[in-house]
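tokens incoming
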């Protein structure tokens, strides 16, 4: 409806909202607190858990993780501070 005066959300979500708002929104402050996210996997899915861990490790090792953070200007949210 175009009537948003303020928005409180995860830092990357807020940054993306500002980017997509064509100048209508701006980020008033940075992250309040950083916390890692998790991926829920059923206990009876050890193969899936291992595959996800390996994929995430590769993203970090080959620099993709850092590139994604940089693309979205979210380096401050890195779990490797």
């Amino acid at each position: 409806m175009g009537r948003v005066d303020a928005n409180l959300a995860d830092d990357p979500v807020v940054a993306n909202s500002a980017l997509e708002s064509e100048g209508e929104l701006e980020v008033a402050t940075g992250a309040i607190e950083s916390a890692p996210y998790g991926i829920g996997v059923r206990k009876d899915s050890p193969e899936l858990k291992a595959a996800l861990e390996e994929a995430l490790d590769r993203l970090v090792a080959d620099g993709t993780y850092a590139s994604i953070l940089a693309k979205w200007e979210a380096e401050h949210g890195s779990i490797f501070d």
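note: Residues 16 and 22 are 11 Å apart (CA to CA).
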